[in-house]
Design a protein that fits this description.
By secondary structure, the protein is mainly alpha-helical. 71% of the residues lie in helices and 0% in strands. The protein has five helices and no strands.
Length: 177
C-alpha cells in the first residue's frame, strides 16, 4: 500500500498533469490559428502525453486500492505575443513538473514506500527527456522568431517529440486512449 502522504501528493500531481495537458492544448490552438501546423501538432501530442501521465497515476492509485481525487485544473494561458513565448512557458512548466516528480520520489523514499518510489522512477526519466526536448525547441524558435517557417521546417525534419510508445511506461487508466 502506498503511504498516505504519497497518495495525497500523487492526487495533487494528477491535477498538475491535467493542467499541463490543458496548457499544451492552448499552445497548440495558438499555433494552429497561426497556420503553423507542425508546432501545433507537436503541442497537441504533448497534451495527449500529459493527459496520459495523469492517467498512469490514476491507474497506479486504482491498482493500489487507493482513492483517486481528480482536482480542478487552473485555466491555461491563452494568447501569446510571438512564437517563442509558448515554448518558454512549456519549458518552465516541464522544469516545475520535474521538481514535483522529484519531490514525489523523495517523499516515497522518506516513507519507505518502495513500490511508489519504483513507480515514480519512470517519470523522473521522462522529465529529463521533456526538459531536453523543450530546451532544444526553445533554441530553435528563438532563432526562428522572425521566420516561423524555419521552426516548422525543423520540426518536419527532426520529428521532435515523436519517439513512439515506451514499453517501460506504466499502464494508463482506460488503456491506450
Amino acid at each position: 500500500m502506498p503511504a498516505a502522504a504519497f497518495v495525497d501528493k500523487l492526487n495533487d500531481q494528477i491535477g498538475y498533469e491535467f493542467a499541463a495537458s490543458q496548457q499544451y492544448v492552448a499552445v497548440a490552438v495558438h499555433y494552429d490559428a497561426q497556420t503553423l501546423p507542425r508546432l501545433a501538432a507537436f503541442f497537441y501530442r504533448q497534451a495527449v502525453e500529459e493527459r496520459n501521465h495523469a492517467l498512469m497515476m490514476v491507474r497506479y492509485l486504482i491498482d493500489s486500492g487507493e482513492s483517486v481525487a481528480i482536482p480542478a485544473a487552473e485555466a491555461p494561458k491563452n494568447g501569446f505575443s510571438d512564437i517563442v513565448e509558448p515554448v518558454r512557458l512549456a519549458l518552465e512548466q516541464e522544469r516545475r513538473v520535474g521538481e514535483q516528480i522529484t519531490a514525489l520520489a523523495r517523499l516515497a523514499r522518506e516513507e519507505d514506500d518502495y513500490a511508489s518510489e519504483q513507480f515514480i522512477q519512470w517519470f523522473i526519466k521522462e522529465q529529463v527527456e521533456e526538459v531536453s526536448s523543450m530546451s532544444g525547441l526553445l533554441n530553435v524558435v528563438e532563432r526562428a522568431r522572425e521566420d516561423p517557417m524555419r521552426a516548422e521546417d525543423y520540426l518536419a525534419r527532426e520529428m521532435l517529440g515523436d519517439a513512439g510508445d515506451d514499453p517501460t511506461a506504466p499502464p494508463a487508466a482506460g488503456g491506450a486512449l
